[in-house]
Amino acid sequence: MPRKIIIDTDPGQDDAVAILLALASPEEIEVLGITAVAGNVPLELTAKNARIVCELAGHTDVPVYAGCDRPLNRPLVTAEHVHGKTGLDGPVLPDPEMPLAEGHAVDFIIDTLRAHEPGTVTLCPLGPLTNIATAFRKAPDIIDRVQEIVLMGGAYFEVGNITPTAEFNIYVDPEAADIVFKSGIRIVVMPLDVTHDALVTPHRNDAFRALDSKVGHAVAEMTDFFERFDIEKYGSEGAPLHDPCVTAYLIKPDLFSGRHINVEIETQSELTLGMTVADWWGVTDRSPNAMFISDVDAQGFFDLLTERLARL
Ligand code: BDR
Ligand code: CA
Hints:
With 312 residues, the protein is α/β, with parallel strands linked by helices. The protein has 12 helices and 12 strands.
């Protein structure tokens, strides 16, 4: 039985690839809906980009909802410097024809969790955690119904990418992240520690291009675009493909390993706002609340991704 998921996202080229991987994997994943949140770019664009990606995959049947347009307590911080003005710069893709689904993303999350048996719906956040935290605040009864949260966010050994100590998704809405990490739900975290090993090398990008399909070319052009930023910044061989680690984990968890540890979110300090304070070495008596992933079989991950994208 495929696992039922809601993808909460701020596309973003790497979000786009994560969505494509999920839609290409119906044996393992059933996407109940996609909820857009403000993050990499403003909500209007993330809600549009999510539909562009669904159409690229030929899956206009998946409902896309627009959610929160700003973090709980703070002004929105965006990342056009990484993802371009549209958030999905790189390939030239048509504007979406499919409409947004009616209603607010937060209500879709609440209604979907209430409509399914408890413990049968997994949440997959790929952006700031505003929609998820808002749903938990509005309807605390749904917290116990969530099967698991598998999210991209945070960092420990790699520390920060948007500030010296914070990863973008957590930094944008640290109060929302705090609510999620304190929820008591089983959480699997894909931090920068692991996504920085999932590098799109030229060889791996050529493999996407060699699929010689609309999807293969679009993915290669997306990664070409956002690679320029990371290659310049890190001097690495390619850019990290962050968000697809979440959907790959749902398909092949054996590709990943980590530790079940305590993770707290810094919400006060100006200097370290949004830091994921991860007790990797078990030096506190705080209870573990997250499976913090540290390693990935990177080639296995890219082989899986390429094989699945070939299906679209
Ligand atoms: C995260 O931030 C965004 O820019 C990416 O889409 C990813 O979700 C990486 O820090
Ligand atoms: Ca993202």
